[in-house]
Design goal:
The protein is of the alpha+beta class. The protein folds into three domains: about 1-20 and about 70-240, no CATH class; about 240-320, Immunoglobulins (Immunoglobulin-like, Sandwich); about 325-360. The protein is built from eight helices and 13 strands. It has helices at about 1-20, 70-80, 95-110, 140-150, 165-190, 195-225, 325-350, 355-375, and strands spanning about 85-95, 115-120, 125-135, 150-160, 225-235, 240-245, 250, 255-265, 270-275, 280, 285-290, 295-305, 310-320. A five-stranded mixed beta sheet has the order 2-3-5-1-4. A five-stranded mixed beta sheet has the order 7-13-12-9-10, with no helix packed on it. It has a three-stranded antiparallel beta sheet with strand order 6-8-11, with no helix packed on it. Residues about 20-75 have low confidence and may be disordered.
Length: about 375
């Protein structure tokens, strides 16, 4: 009968605790007092442990820090501490690797840390990134210092997220869970049978898990609000240009296009093409055809809005159409090739002539011998 009564108390306690309006978080001092209110510590009840049944540890859970002092000042401090501020920047730098090193040193000086960084090889692109965390009170100074490393700040944004309400809700939940835990400990102290003890211990364990999860969420909010996250995307300002013709080998009067690949620099860009036959163009993607066959040296000069210049050069081979020189060169190549073939045959015959002579002599000897036998017979 006693077991049934104890088991019936468990859902009643859970219902009463969950319906409580608010946790007893603080006790303010009397009017006119500036002293700090305190809450007497809870004492863990003595839990009997029947033979053969291990009892759950009944150590007193840590008390939640109580707010004291000037209420207005504390509210201001807590609000500032629980505003999560983030920033992002897109900056142009002369050298991505050096800029990442500078930002890393700055972060360490401000007692922050680097979350991640990426430095691409030059041949794979001109964009890198670094993500850092700095103390919240150094957020503005860090953003300003990073801007000083850039040749140009292309974009910059900041955001603030007030997590005070979430923080308060989590603390209320934690107080409720701690109160529930104390009630379970009282019930556990009164339990005398194995069934009662096991049932209460299961509920107590679930409550303790919820307490640890809630504490982790509170700690996460405190840590993320005490530091600010800054994401920096870096683009290389050093201008690098490469271009490729549509085909490296073309026929006379065949139209081909040229396309430039630009990394770094400051847009907009200007283009100066020279196709190697006294024809030029200033288009971004020009097309061109050649009237005569020859090897043409094509050059491209690109200038950005800051006056930085980069160039590239490629050779295009133009074939086709009638030309006395080209015909003569083709005939000479064919004659040279034929002469080489004949010369190779003669060399091979000369090298293997002793072998051919020996084989021919053996064949002739056996044929002569065969004829002689027939004639004597």
């Amino acid at each position: 009968m006693r077991t049934s009564k104890i088991l019936l108390l468990i859902p009643i306690i859970l219902l009463v605790v969950s319906c409580s309006a608010a946790p007893r978080a603080t006790e303010t001092a009397p009017s006119g007092s500036r002293g700090e209110a305190t809450t007497p510590p809870r004492e863990a009840p003595t839990v009997p442990s029947p033979a053969g049944i291990p009892s759950l540890p009944t150590t007193t859970p840590p008390a939640i820090p109580q707010i004291s002092g000037d209420i207005a000042q504390q509210a201001q401090d807590i609000t500032a501490r629980l505003i999560v501020r983030n920033g992002s920047m897109l900056i142009m730098v002369d050298d991505i690797k050096n800029a990442v090193a500078q930002i890393t040193t700055l972060t360490e000086q401000k007692k922050g840390f680097v979350v991640s960084s990426q430095i691409p090889p030059i041949e794979q692109g001109s964009t890198g990134s670094i993500v850092i965390r700095v103390p919240a009170d150094e957020f503005e100074n860090a953003m300003s210092a990073i801007s000083g490393f850039a040749q140009e700040v292309k974009s910059q944004s900041t955001s603030a997220n007030d997590v005070m309400q979430q923080y308060t809700d989590l603390n209320s939940r934690l107080n409720n869970l701690l109160a529930t835990e104390q009630q379970f400990l009282v019930i556990l102290g009164k339990a005398t049978t194995v069934t009662d003890i096991l049932s209460v211990q299961r509920e107590l364990q679930k409550t303790r898990e919820d307490i640890e999860v809630t504490k982790g969420q509170i700690q996460y909010l405190e840590q993320t609000s005490s530091t600010s996250l800054i994401t920096i995307t870096l683009q290389q300002s050093k201008l690098i240009v490469k271009f490729t013709p549509e085909r490296p080998l073309v026929d006379v009067d065949e139209t081909i296009s040229f396309r430039a690949d630009i990394t770094g620099g400051f847009s907009p860009f200007s283009y100066e093409w020279n196709f190697g036959d006294k024809v030029t163009s200033n288009k971004q993607v020009p097309t061109h055809s050649y009237a005569t066959a020859a090897d043409r040296k094509v050059t491209l000069k690109v200038t950005d809005s800051h006056g930085n210049v980069a160039t590239d050069e490629r050779t295009v081979t133009v074939t086709g159409g009638w030309s006395g020189n080209s015909v003569a060169r083709t005939a000479w190549r064919a004659l040279s090739m034929s002469g080489r073939v004949v010369l190779n045959v003669l060399i091979w015959v000369g090298i293997f002539s002793p072998v051919w002579l020996t084989i021919g002599g053996i064949v002739i000897f056996f044929r002569w011998r065969s004829r002689r036998k027939k004639s004597t017979a």
